[in-house]
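Thread: Alcohol dehydrogenase, structure

OP (GT): Posting the sequence first so everyone is looking at the same thing. Length is 278 residues per the record. Can we get the structure tokens written out before standup tomorrow? I want them in the notebook alongside the other entries.
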Amino acid sequence: MACSSPLFKGNGNQVHFSSKSKATTTNGSSYVSITGANSGVGYATYQVLATTPDYDFHVIMPGRSLDKVEASRTELATSCSVTSSDISSRLSTLKVDVTDSSSIRAAADAVFRKWGYLDVLINNAVIGATSLDDDTSTRFTMRMQTTVTGPAVMAYVFRLLLLKAPVKPYSIFVPSGTGSFARTADTTRQRGPEPPGDTSAYHASKAAFNMIALKGYLRYREEIKVFAMTTGFVVSNLCGKSEELRTGWRMTGDHRCARDHVEYIEEREGRGCRGIGE
């Protein structure tokens, strides 16, 4: 099928950027998009971005189900005691399935048509708990598709939107220490309880995710500020929906530490955060 797009040319899997021209002026706000933002760190980051008056961000909230994304936007307005109009002016929704390349390209086209560019992409999509009944092949396929292939395609396709930004943009990956070979091999490190089932697929997918971030930095560091930034293990639905699993047996930190991400983007100085290659 031919690819009819203002951003891309080509068809099938052979897709190339049609233009690399930058926006010459800013639209007033910095445009930020975060994948995997219906709970945990991603949701908390949206909460800070969309409701803090000092931050001039317009956040674009993507999701496979627009109904769920709209529900999250309504929940934001309610929990933060702000009006729906205030939220609407600072937060937009976007339909995208990170496991579907054509959906990702369509979403990038939609962003380009409406805003022209993107200042910050935070790659945070991940699948946590899976059924204990899933066989090994199913577990690895699901993990890799959501945690590796999806973020890799998002980073590639949305990179053109970043390259069109009038100032040097950010591509931020939210990694996990579970993807560290050194940390996993350290038998002296204090460890918490393991989630139910075999976690090998999750750890392997996060190791691959870390490599995607590193390769992105090595290739695009002159044009894009590429960072791997983690807030650590925080309260979320990653391991499951019970209170015990959401809090990681009460070993998780406060998900509101997502403010660190926001302060880094806003200050453009790092504030002690380490990026890849620094």
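GT: Both are above now. Quick notes for whoever picks this up: Residues 245-251, 268-275 have pLDDT under 50 and may be disordered. Strands lie at 8-11, 14-17, 30-34, 57-63, 91-95, 120-123, 170-173, 225-228.
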